Amino acid sequence: MDTIYDELFELLDTKIFTKRYTRNNRLNFPEYRGAIFGFVRPRFHYKGYLELSLDSKKYPDVYELILNLGKNIVPFEFKTIQLNKNLICPPHKDTNNRGDSCLVSFGNYTGCNIIVGDKLYDSNRNPVIFDGSKIIHYNTDDLVGTKYSLIFFK
Predict the structure, then answer these.
(1) pTM beyond 0.85, yes or no
(2) CATH: 3.50.50.60, 3.30.70.590, 3.60.130.30, 3.40.50.620. Which one for 2-153?
(3) What is the CB neighbour count within 10 angstroms for residue 102?
(4) What tens digit of pLDDT does each residue of 39-56 get?
């Protein structure tokens, strides 16, 4: 299983992902780079169905590896995967998610553990499953190195 993390890390380091800004609905989130893979609502008008994300189409090699990883570590059905690079999340809930989320991180980094409720977890190659829509979660502010995190959810 470790080889898939290494392969994904090497592949991701060759890509330049879109900057995500604080103008979205998540106040206090810092600027970061990331991507959204899997199925999402259509970009401009929700028509009652989901469609493949733009990032999934733009980076099919990344999407395929992420799906392969998800099939091995996520014990529930997921539709969407959020990819974050070096993001230190402030306390928040993912109010639009439905059910459990699975978070896993990887890279050549230390620190930046996740706190879910009042428990500290090291998600470095260790999946952490929690209901992000109900429980406040955030990262510790001690990241050193390059960290990618994946969140699998509905």
Answers:
(1) yes
(2) 3.60.130.30
(3) 21
(4) 988 877 767 788 999 999
